[in-house]
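INFO batch 0412 | record 1 of 1 | parsing
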Amino acid sequence: NLADSEIVANPTLELDNDMPVSSVQVQNQTLKAIWGFDERVLGCGDPARPESVYFSKRSNADAWPPQNWVVVSEPGTEIMNGLQWNLRCFAFSRERLYTLVPNVTQGSTFTPQETACRKGLKGRWAFCAGEKGIYFISKDGPYRTVGGAEENIADDSIRPLFPTFDNPDGVDTNGYEAVDMTDEDGLRLSRHNSEIWFDYTGATSGERQTLIYDERRNRWRGYFSDG
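INFO prediction complete | emitting tokens
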């Protein structure tokens, strides 16, 4: 009942507003991790495409066209999570850090590039953004990066808690329990003011432990709950 001129003036009906996400054999595949950048939502964790990152339409977090995904890491190397830091988009694999550069010409896709950071995430939630960089737990300890080469921030007070060649399970030291690296979901980093809180499962007792890193003073301390 509308005139042709009225129909032409209206926006084109979009037919690719798929819900997250269209995988290889699954139409509505959920993702294990999501983050935001450039008015989009990005995500990873598709079992059929573990090395890939998906992304929504700009300004529409509910619309994920089936073509909106990009291979980031080497085949079979899982992308663990991602974040925005210092106006750049990053994605961690288990082995290293990548930056995702928006397509300058079309603005509809991302181009992955390797960074100089050659350490990856041990656990999907073992990272956070801080004042001085991105903090994360790799398979051999805590690190910081600003998008370049990684910096090991473990000092002598906590270094033995993490796996080494001589002690692959780590050892208790200075009243702190070694880190149970097998409990990957238990490896958690979060930021509070200028401190990075590292929560993990103790390898000796199996109970939750907390270490705190002061970004401004570059030192670690333990947190012991009265409860």
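INFO post-check: The chain has one helix and 16 strands.
INFO record closed
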